[in-house]
């Protein structure tokens, strides 16, 4: 029933480009940044995880507060002084959901089942923004609430 409603509402035809948060509004770090910078960006932005890009704006992975804390976990305490010893690419996860801007909303919906955000790329595989689970659910709610 829900699937039929989704199909009938033409929600699947929505353009990813129009729904994404554009890159200039996305908090991110670069893979060669020191870990203390990444922790700062995560804390300041308030997000649990953010995309990692390289200097050419290509998606390399994602990094979370939990991964950072885990990497500096000593036997008896969190060794904050080690934050500057690591670079982002030594700690990040390179499994990050991504899709092209011209792919369907259905793909974003499918990827958002297991991921809170999906990286959106242009035809040159450059990062252009993210699509969040929140915006996907909000759109579905808007359509179904009519
Ligand atoms: P939301 O659905 O808004 O809670 O966002 C889900 C996840 O997407 C957040 O936990 C972050 O990991 C990521 N996210 C959302 N907005 C941004 C943003 N502006 N910059 C970086 N990451 C974001």
TrEMBL record:
Transmembrane segments: none
Keywords assigned: CBS domain
PROSITE patterns for the chain: CBS
Keyword Glycoprotein: no
Domain of life where this protein originates: Bacteria
Domain CBS positions: 20-80
Matching Gene3D superfamilies: CBS-domain
Pfam families found in the cross-reference section: CBS
Keyword 4Fe-4S part of the UniProt annotation: no
The name this protein goes by in its record: Predicted transcriptional regulator with C-terminal CBS domains
Species per Swiss-Prot/TrEMBL record: Alteribacillus iranensis
Lineage: Bacteria, Bacillati, Bacillota, Bacilli, Bacillales
């Amino acid at each position: 029933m829900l699937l039929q409603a989704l199909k009938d509402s033409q929600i699947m035809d929505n353009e990813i480009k129009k729904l994404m948060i554009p890159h200039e509004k996305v908090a991110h770090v670069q893979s060669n940044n020191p870990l203390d910078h990444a922790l700062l960006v995560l804390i300041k932005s308030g997000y649990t995880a953010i995309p990692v890009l390289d200097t050419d704006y290509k998606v390399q992975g994602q990094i979370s507060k939990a991964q950072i804390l885990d990497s500096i976990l000593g036997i008896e305490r969190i060794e904050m002084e080690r934050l500057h010893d690591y670079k982002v690419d030594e700690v990040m996860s390179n499994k990050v959901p991504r899709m092209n801007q011209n792919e369907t909303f259905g793909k974003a919906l499918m990827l958002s089942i297991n991921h809170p955000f999906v990286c959106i790329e242009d035809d040159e595989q450059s990062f252009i923004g993210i699509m969040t689970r929140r915006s996907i659910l909000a759109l579905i709610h808007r359509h179904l609430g009519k």
